């Protein structure tokens, strides 16, 4: 076992190495004559500036007794109604042109990077749930007694694992999505679920086959049928053994979700590209995006480790 002093020495060496790495990144930035502007990044994460409300057409400003602002269009049509605002810019009877600021809303709101992070989390969570369902289903089919089920499962696993995820995203969105009228987000979830499900199926299959055949025989000798023995005896043992590889696969799922940006889903990666073009701070943006991906995958890894320890303690 490690002594207390050796652990402190290890922590100290770790801090020295990390400081050296951070210094190396900073020096590299100086050598390429790059000026860091982290202050440009903050509004794209949490924006505290007032939000302008602009006119959508030419017209005349009208303010009623309740303070509701409406822009009556010059050439007919429905008026633009603004009932919630913090600062009124337009005045009664003002001539308004399209694009003019007519009111402002104070307070903070999420910037594009934060919104992209939320899309990535939502996309990954939904894909994770469906991939578990597909993985368990096809994993059980891989060890089923019927040959037809095993053949179907092998075909699914080999086809999906043998083709790139990017190609599968295009096929799901442009072909399957067109047939079933799927929106971009649903197509992205479907593609990620199908792709990850194939790997989960192999992990589940390996976990089931790692359990001694005697466990199934003992359960059957106690009067359980095949399904009951699989649910109550084999699967609980297989779950404990598959948690580490499942954790790695789910972390890959979160990182692979960045590929859905090719079908115009504004996830964290696509939001990062858009912010780079507007902030002119590419290194700051991509370091932030990488850090946010690391945060999400780190939380998932920690949660699975906690679950693994709890299951180990229940033995």
TrEMBL record:
<keyword id="KW-1003">Cell membrane</keyword>
<comment type="similarity">
    <text>Belongs to the binding-protein-dependent transport system permease family. HisMQ subfamily.</text>
</comment>
<dbReference type="GO" id="GO:0022857">
    <property type="term" value="F:transmembrane transporter activity"/>
</dbReference>
<dbReference type="GO" id="GO:0043190">
    <property type="term" value="C:ATP-binding cassette (ABC) transporter complex"/>
</dbReference>
<keyword id="KW-0812">Transmembrane</keyword>
<dbReference type="Pfam" id="PF00528">
    <property type="entry name" value="BPD_transp_1"/>
</dbReference>
<dbReference type="InterPro" id="IPR010065">
    <property type="entry name" value="AA_ABC_transptr_permease_3TM"/>
</dbReference>
<comment type="function">
    <text>Part of the binding-protein-dependent transport system for glutamine; probably responsible for the translocation of the substrate across the membrane.</text>
</comment>
<keyword id="KW-0813">Transport</keyword>
<dbReference type="InterPro" id="IPR000515">
    <property type="entry name" value="MetI-like"/>
</dbReference>
<dbReference type="InterPro" id="IPR043429">
    <property type="entry name" value="ArtM/GltK/GlnP/TcyL/YhdX-like"/>
</dbReference>
<keyword id="KW-1133">Transmembrane helix</keyword>
<feature type="domain" description="ABC transmembrane type-1">
    <location>
        <begin position="117"/>
        <end position="304"/>
    </location>
</feature>
<feature type="transmembrane region" description="Helical">
    <location>
        <begin position="12"/>
        <end position="29"/>
    </location>
</feature>
<keyword id="KW-0029">Amino-acid transport</keyword>
<feature type="transmembrane region" description="Helical">
    <location>
        <begin position="285"/>
        <end position="304"/>
    </location>
</feature>
<dbReference type="GO" id="GO:0006865">
    <property type="term" value="P:amino acid transport"/>
</dbReference>
<feature type="transmembrane region" description="Helical">
    <location>
        <begin position="117"/>
        <end position="141"/>
    </location>
</feature>
<protein>
    <recommendedName>
        <fullName>Putative glutamine transport system permease protein GlnP</fullName>
    </recommendedName>
</protein>
<keyword id="KW-0472">Membrane</keyword>
<feature type="transmembrane region" description="Helical">
    <location>
        <begin position="153"/>
        <end position="176"/>
    </location>
</feature>
<dbReference type="InterPro" id="IPR035906">
    <property type="entry name" value="MetI-like_sf"/>
</dbReference>
